[in-house]
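User: Hi! I have a protein structure encoded as tokens and I'd like to know what sequence might fold into it. I'm fairly new to this, so please keep things simple.
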């Protein structure tokens, strides 16, 4: 059942005052009260009847279907409410339940005084006795309450030493040990005692002659006196179960306790109230009750006084104004106002007076039957009383009787008891009566609805209107505004429950009316015209309860209760705008009342009212500003916040999040996810376009004033931030695009910001660290970027395959540039910028925006990350007004893994630390054409629809964190300032020492080199116009003449321990164009063998830049190649400086002469040394600046295939054939290839070096690759594929030689001689030769030299086709000849291929020859088709003919 005080059945409730006793904490007290509230509906069938015959007036056995509804309150009702009794008896507490904590019994003594009942052996027994004394004090302090009971919750007595529990005290086990009926049984016991004692109260009412109406001056003293005893004599206690002895209890310390502790130890009311006593000393009561005078009811006031006793000697004003007879406070003297109760008639009071008193008493007894659950008996009494009141025009009591009759009928319908609507409730209109008398069957309605409910439903709206009319009728007695307004609100609540159930009075509507169940659906402003009663009628009736503006008629609390009840009903029927109007009035009323209450409270504790905000809270021990009105923290947090939040929601205030207004900070942190932030921005954008901004700001200012007057720190913080949020634009401005300025002035912004800051600081000083505001701009963080790491610390990603390739060719990697070196390529910038190293800090730049005209003081800001463990630095800053600002933060990942920077955790001064995601892009909602909507329904509908504006795009920084890596730096080098001067061809060695600064070893060290000559060479290699010979030359220089390289080092030394050093030697070569170089060390910590590495690994780089100056040394100015004519004697070579020359002369068949012009470009004497592979060496001394010609014998060269394709040193260019891109003829291509191969052969056999003879000792090699061979030089160098040797023999076969010349032969005239021609095939394939012998005359022109037919005769033919000459073999041809005259003859020969040789097939079977491939076609295109060749003898054979002597 709902605890709403405005329920229609509220007059049927029994109010019970629940107070704490002993040592108990607020939280546990609240939980115990909650357990009691769960069983606040007690059915009469479960209640045991009292066995005393004089206590059975309200016996539960008479109507077991009934029930008692308890209203458990923890506060003393105000006097304005108590003054309405007995007209509204439900406002007066009839039972008192004192709650103690069983867990505290063994902990601390509840009272320091000695027990009057003797010594207690245990702490628990002593405290139980103290609780019994407290119970007696409660009976004395609240004598008008009928039943007093102490409940000790969570008490589990020990079985071996059971403590006796006094009467009036009950124990309740813990929740785990309790049964389902434990609390229910206790409530039934309390109800049984209360029903028995209600007999006493009813008899006392029946003994009265008149009952005064509320607001009327009392006609008889004792009717409207003090509700609680204010003197020291409790002899007039209403509870007649116990009598009071004359024994006086020792002084209690509870009366002197501090007021701030009264709520938790003793219920001390306000000082201004006329009830409560702190120094009463009631005595103990006997174990058996004394005989009550109510067993024989008195007939006169003298008898009443004699039974109850009076204190005529008490002179206090309070004692002279006693309460009702039979109650506390004593009686008046017996000789005053004597009225005979039995003497009603012509000799007594007039008949009208007697009937009025009798009718009111009957109505009062009927209301007690209603509270006791005897609803049928109550209906009888109330019908009788209503009839009497109507007959004598007692309008107030007539209306009260009709109201209670309506409640009885509703309760009977709720339990399913059929009833008949009393005639007194029927309307006076004859037409209406006739329609009802015809029966409900003839009326429209649900045929399944019971007849009695349909009848009640038909008369209910008119009946309630008539009751309100009776209450409002102007007469001698007028109902005060409070009960009138509350009655109207209860009636409207009844009609609202009927309206929400489609105007049908059935089980569902009765449950809502009786139990106060909230509706499942919320009504909108859509018309509901066919439902009766209509909402307009309910609203019209409801606004009759609106309080007047006269402050003397209602207290602030009563006015607030009425306005809150009106707003609640308006909210249920869907009139939210009207509700907001009432709530605004309620806020204005509360502000004035709160300020007055704070001022009064400050005056009571003796401080200045201006200091009440702090002092009242600290004195009363309230944590969030609930002390000024004695409100609990739950009232502030769960009542007022929801109340003000509903007001703001109706007007469309842009709040942070309605759903998070009452949750913990831990739950709020989960609300800062990206999805919820986007959803919140979209919802705020929709709300921002709803309603009028000026009204929103006005409502928020009122809420702030209300919270300050309360005082409520949390409310001040929340509504101040909501005001800034509502006044803001709610956009993410771009550069010079959106106007994001707020709509309030700068002074108000400053005032609100200062208000938030001061309130937060104050709450921190009071220990309320959980109170904070929500920052008002969701787009605080506009961007986060990662600063690039230093070049030496940047990790570079590599694949595992790359590492394996490098490892298998480590030596080649250090030398050969054509082997792919991934460590020289440029790293992927995007990947590098997203990689961090565990344990090493990285710098981030965060962009913050402030669209307001105030400074934003950020107390702390740090990065928010997901994934791997990440530690961010914390910084503070102040963002200036209306600007964006960049802040630098550092963060350190603690472990390897995936890391994502999703935003920043920001703590703005006065606000909660929360996460802000990254909004890098400008954003503003679309302002669409407004579509007509009705009330809040349009807002709620827009929230359910897809967001119409542009989407919100968040950003994050995805990072990859790798394990800890070493940090290596260059400690030292043997070069001075990393610079070196070197000569061309010179090689120098220097050392570099590396140091590991980290605690991680470096187990992978890879060196790479770069210099200034590599760029031009790489560019030349990419030229499409370069010939194959040029490309080969570029590649040779790039591969075999590297400027920098690492000298061979042991693999075990490629390791640098943590904090250790390692030294490596490098070699530099001087060559033209070298100006700078770089030694690059790629290092890493793998930690595992390289075969166990995962897919990827990272390395770092450290580089040493060198400045190099290369000067010229020995230059090759010119060159030439000459054949040798004849033989050169050895002495001549020795004289020229040659060493190790063969003993025999150098013949022209084996050697040729190489002429080199060498220039000394270095200002120092140079010694040049040229050396061939056969050991021939020539040394030459060259002065500075001089050019010397050096003649050097070079062996002639034979090449099997001088037309072979030019190779490529770069593996990527190693194709089968290389075709020149330039368009040249095959003859030129063949000549180029011949020149290339013969040049390479010469350079293989020849080397040169130099060294200085003066100055610093330097030595190096001579660059001989500048040699270029012309066709003439090639002829001097090459050895033909087919050799032709010619000799002349005499007839006997002896060689006719001439001693003067090796090639000259002597023959005699007219004698036979033989010309022998030896043909040598040096090739790898056989040839088909044709030999031609060509004799001629010496020293003659060609036309004369060939005219020798009459001077020289031969046998056979001079041209012969020879058989196949196999490869690497020779053949001889002999031709007979006779010289016919003297003279000198010259014999030469030539060999021509008769036909091309074709290699035979491997199998004898006929094999079809495949068609010519594209390769052969390409070869024919480059070199031309293969043709028959011809070779000539290199030197002729000279024959000298003379006569024989």
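Assistant: Happy to help. Inverse folding works backwards from shape to sequence: for each of the 1445 positions I chose a residue that suits the local structure. Here it is:
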């Amino acid at each position: 059942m709902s605890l709403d005080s405005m329920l229609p059945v509220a007059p049927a409730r029994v109010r019970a005052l629940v107070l704490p006793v002993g040592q108990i904490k607020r939280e546990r007290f609240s939980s115990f009260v909650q357990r009691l509230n769960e069983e606040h509906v007690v059915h009469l069938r479960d209640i045991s009847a009292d066995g005393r015959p004089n206590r059975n007036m309200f016996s539960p056995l008479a109507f077991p279907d009934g029930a008692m509804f308890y209203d458990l309150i923890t506060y003393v009702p105000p006097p304005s409410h108590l003054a309405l009794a007995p007209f509204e008896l439900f406002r007066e507490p009839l039972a008192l339940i004192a709650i103690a904590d069983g867990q505290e019994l063994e902990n601390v003594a509840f009272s320091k005084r000695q027990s009057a009942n003797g010594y207690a052996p245990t702490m628990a027994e002593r405290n139980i006795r103290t609780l019994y004394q407290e119970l007696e004090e409660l009976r004395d302090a609240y004598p008008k309450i009928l039943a007093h009971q102490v409940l000790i919750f969570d008490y589990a007595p020990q079985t071996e030493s059971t403590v006796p529990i006094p009467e009036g005290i009950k124990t309740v086990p813990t929740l785990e040990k309790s049964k389902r009926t434990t609390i229910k049984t206790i409530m039934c016991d309390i109800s049984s005692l209360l029903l028995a004692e209600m007999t006493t109260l009813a008899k006392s009412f029946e003994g009265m002659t008149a009952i005064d109406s509320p607001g009327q001056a009392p006609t008889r003293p004792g009717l409207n006196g003090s509700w609680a005893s204010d003197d020291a004599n409790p002899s007039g206690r209403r509870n007649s179960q116990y009598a009071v002895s004359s024994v006086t209890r020792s002084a209690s310390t509870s009366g002197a306790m501090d007021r701030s502790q009264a709520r938790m130890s003793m219920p001390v009311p306000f000082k201004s109230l006329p009830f409560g006593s702190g120094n009463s000393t009631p005595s103990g009561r006997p174990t058996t009750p004394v005989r009550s005078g109510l067993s024989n009811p008195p007939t006169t006031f003298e008898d009443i006084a004699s039974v109850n006793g009076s204190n005529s000697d008490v002179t206090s004003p309070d004692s002279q104004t006693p309460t009702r007879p039979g109650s506390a406070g004593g009686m008046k003297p017996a000789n005053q106002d004597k009225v005979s109760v039995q003497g009603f008639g012509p000799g007594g009071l007039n008949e009208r007076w007697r009937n009025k008193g009798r009718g009111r008493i009957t109505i009062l007894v009927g209301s007690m039957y209603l509270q006791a659950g005897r609803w049928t008996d109550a209906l009888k009494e109330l019908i009788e009383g209503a009839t009497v009141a109507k007959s004598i025009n007692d309008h107030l009591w007539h209306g009260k009787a009709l109201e209670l009759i309506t409640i009885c009928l509703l309760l009977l319908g709720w339990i399913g008891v059929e009833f008949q609507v009393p005639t007194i409730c029927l309307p006076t209109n004859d037409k209406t009566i006739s329609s009802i008398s015809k029966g409900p069957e003839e009326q429209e309605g649900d045929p399944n609805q019971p007849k009695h409910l349909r009848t009640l439903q038909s008369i209910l709206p008119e009946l309630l209107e008539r009751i309100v009319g009776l209450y409002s009728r102007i007469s001698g007695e007028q109902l005060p505004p409070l009960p009138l307004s509350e009655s109207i609100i209860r009636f409207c609540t009844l009609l609202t429950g009927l309206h929400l159930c489609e105007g049908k009075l059935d089980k569902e509507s009765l449950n809502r009316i009786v139990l106060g169940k909230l509706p499942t659906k919320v009504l909108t402003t859509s018309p509901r015209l066919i439902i009766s009663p209509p909402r307009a009628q309910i609203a019209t009736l409801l606004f009759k309860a609106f309080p007047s503006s006269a402050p003397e008629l209602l207290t602030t609390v009563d006015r607030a209760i009425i306005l809150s009840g009106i707003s609640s009903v308006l909210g249920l029927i869907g009139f939210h705008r009207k509700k907001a109007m009432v709530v605004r009035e309620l806020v204005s009323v509360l502000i004035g009342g709160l300020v007055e209450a704070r001022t009064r409270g400050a005056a009571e504790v003796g401080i200045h009212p201006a200091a009440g905000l702090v002092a009242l809270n600290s004195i009363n021990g309230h944590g969030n500003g609930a002390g000024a009105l004695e409100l609990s923290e739950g009232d502030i947090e769960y009542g007022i916040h929801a109340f003000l939040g509903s007001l703001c929601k109706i007007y469309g205030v842009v709040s942070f999040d309605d759903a998070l207004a009452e949750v913990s900070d831990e739950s709020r942190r989960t609300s800062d996810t990206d999805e919820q932030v986007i959803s919140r921005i979209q919802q705020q954008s929709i709300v921002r376009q709803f309603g009028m901004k000026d009204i929103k700001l006005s409502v928020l200012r009122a809420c702030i004033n209300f919270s300050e007057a309360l005082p409520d720190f949390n409310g001040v913080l929340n509504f101040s931030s909501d005001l800034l949020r509502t006044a803001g634009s709610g956009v993410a401005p771009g550069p010079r695009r959106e106007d994001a300025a707020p709509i309030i002035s700068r002074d108000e912004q400053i005032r609100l910001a200062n208000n938030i800051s001061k309130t937060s600081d104050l709450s921190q000083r009071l220990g309320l660290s959980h109170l904070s505001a929500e920052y008002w701009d969701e787009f605080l963080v506009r961007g986060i970027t990662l600063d690039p790491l230093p070049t030496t610390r940047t990790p570079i990603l590599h694949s595992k395959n790359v590492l394996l390739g490098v490892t298998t060719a480590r030596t080649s990697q250090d030398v050969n540039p054509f082997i792919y070196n991934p460590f020289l390529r440029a790293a992927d910038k995007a990947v590098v910028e997203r990689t961090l190293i565990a344990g090493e800090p990285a710098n981030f730049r965060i962009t913050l925006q402030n669209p307001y005209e105030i400074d934003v003081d950020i107390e702390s800001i740090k990065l928010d990350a997901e994934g791997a463990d990440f530690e961010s630095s914390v910084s503070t800053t102040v963002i200036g007004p209306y600007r964006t600002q960049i802040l630098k933060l550092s963060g350190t990942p603690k472990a390897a893994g995936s890391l994502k920077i999703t935003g920043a955790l920001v703590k703005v001064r006065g606000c909660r630390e929360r996460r802000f995601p990254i909004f890098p892009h400008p954003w503003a909602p679309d302002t669409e054409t407004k579509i007509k909507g009705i009330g809040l329904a349009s807002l709620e509908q827009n929230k359910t629809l897809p967001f119409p504006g542009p989407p919100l795009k968040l950003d994050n920084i995805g990072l990859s964190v790798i394990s800890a890596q070493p940090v290596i730096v260059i400690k030292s080098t043997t070069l001075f300032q990393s610079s070196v001067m070197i000569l061309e061809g010179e090689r120098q060695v220097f050392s570099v020492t590396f140091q590991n600064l980290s605690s991680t070893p470096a187990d992978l060290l890879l060196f790479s080199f770069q210099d200034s000559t590599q760029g031009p060479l790489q560019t030349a290699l990419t030229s499409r116009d370069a010939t194959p010979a040029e490309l080969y030359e570029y590649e040779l220089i790039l591969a075999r003449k590297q400027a920098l390289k690492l000298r061979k080092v042991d693999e075990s030394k490629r390791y640098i321990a943590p904090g250790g050093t390692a030294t490596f030697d490098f070699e530099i070569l001087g060559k033209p164009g070298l100006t700078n170089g770089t030694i690059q060390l790629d290092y890493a910590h793998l930690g595992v063998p390289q075969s166990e590495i995962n897919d990827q690994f990272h390395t770092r780089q450290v580089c040493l830049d060198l400045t190099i100056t290369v000067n010229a040394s020995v230059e090759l100015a010119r060159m030439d190649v000459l054949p040798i004519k004849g033989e050169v004697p050895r002495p001549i070579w020795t004289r020229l400086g040659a060493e190790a020359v063969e003993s025999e002369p150098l013949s022209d068949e084996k050697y040729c002469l190489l002429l080199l012009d060498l220039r000394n470009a270095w200002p120092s004497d140079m010694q040049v040394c040229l050396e061939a592979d056969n050991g021939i060496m020539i040394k030459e001394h060259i002065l500075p600046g001089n050019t010397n010609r050096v003649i050097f014998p070079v062996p002639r060269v034979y090449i099997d295939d001088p037309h072979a394709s030019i190779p490529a040193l770069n593996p990527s260019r190693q194709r089968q054939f290389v075709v020149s891109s330039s368009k040249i003829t095959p003859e030129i291509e063949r000549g180029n290839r011949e020149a290339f191969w013969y040049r390479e052969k010469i350079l293989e056999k020849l080397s040169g070096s130099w060294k200085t003879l003066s100055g610093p000792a330097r030595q190096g090699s001579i660059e001989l690759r500048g040699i270029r061979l012309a066709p003439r030089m090639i002829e001097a160098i090459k050895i033909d594929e087919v050799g032709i040797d010619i000799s002349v023999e005499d007839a006997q076969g002896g060689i006719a030689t001439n001693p003067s010349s090796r090639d000259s032969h002597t023959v005699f005239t007219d004698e036979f001689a033989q010309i022998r021609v030896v043909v040598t095939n040096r090739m790898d394939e056989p040839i088909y030769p044709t030999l031609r012998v060509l004799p001629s005359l010496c020293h003659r022109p060609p036309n004369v030299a060939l005219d020798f037919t009459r001077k020289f005769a031969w046998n056979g033919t001079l041209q012969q086709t020879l058989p196949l000459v196999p490869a690497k073999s020779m053949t001889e041809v002999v031709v007979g000849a006779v010289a016919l005259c003297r003279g000198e003859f010259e014999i030469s020969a030539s060999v021509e291929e008769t036909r091309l040789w074709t290699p035979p097939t491997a199998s004898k079977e006929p094999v079809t020859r495949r068609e010519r491939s594209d390769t052969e076609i390409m070869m024919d295109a480059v070199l031309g088709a293969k043709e028959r060749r011809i070779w000539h003898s290199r030197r002729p054979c000279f024959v000298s003919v003379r006569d024989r002597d």
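A useful reference point when you look it over: The chain is about 30% helix and 20% strand. Feel free to ask if any position seems puzzling.
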